[in-house]
Amino acid sequence: MTALKSMSRHQVRFMLNGQPAESEAEPRLLLTDFLRHQIGATGTHVGCEHGVCGACTVVIDGMLTRACMTLAVQIEGCDVRTVESLAPAVDRLGILQAAFRKHHALQCGFCTAGILMSLDHFLRGNPDPSEEDIRVLLSGHLCRCTGYTPIVKAALEAAKDMRTSSANNEPAHV
Ligand code: FES
Ligand code: FES
């Protein structure tokens, strides 16, 4: 394991949503703060900062990860995906995002980025989930506003739309 000096800043190079990115970080800097304050990727939210609420969920090298439980220096050389990757263009929502809007699956939106990342990751490997599957997945996320039912409805509809897109050879996850 590389030894890092606690008071020094270290260059961190990684891929962010398919593009090379880099900035400096002290060894103790959390990935949430690194993404938001150093990189400017403010889509990733910060809630509890101790791994419980799921608001900060991102995908690192294909694994769902709590960014608040990850140090920025740990992502050196990694492939990181954040909620900013879900929209195909600045003026277009992805399939999951559009379903959330349609079903009013967010209110304050604080939990939403993390939930979208978990659902996107899950639906890539489970294109035809049951309602129970979705509810089990959502058990890793806290939402204080919606009561979860609209989120479940949005997720099931997005899964259906993704299956249709996939059958028509369209991009299924945007
Ligand atoms: S902010 Fe990371 S799990 Fe709550
Ligand atoms: S929409 Fe407010 S916490 Fe989920």
> Distance N terminus to C terminus?
37 Å
Overall geometric form:
globular
* Annotation, overall tally of beta strands: 5
Major sheet size, sense and barrel closure? 5 strands, mixed
The proportion of residues forming helix, as a percent range, comes to 25-40%
Q: What low-confidence regions span 5 or more consecutive residues with pLDDT below 50?
A: none
Explain what you see:
With 174 residues, this protein is an alpha+beta fold. The protein has five helices and five strands, in the order ββαβββαααα. It has a five-stranded mixed sheet, sandwiched between helices. Residues 106-112, 143-146 line the site of one FE2/S2 (inorganic) cluster (FES).
Keywords:
binds FE2/S2 (inorganic) cluster; alpha+beta; five-stranded mixed sheet; 174 residues
Question: How would you summarize this macromolecular structure in one to three sentences?
Answer:
With 174 residues, this protein is α+β, with helices and mostly antiparallel strands. It is built from five helices and five strands. It starts with 9 loop residues before the first strand and ends in a 7-residue tail after the last helix.
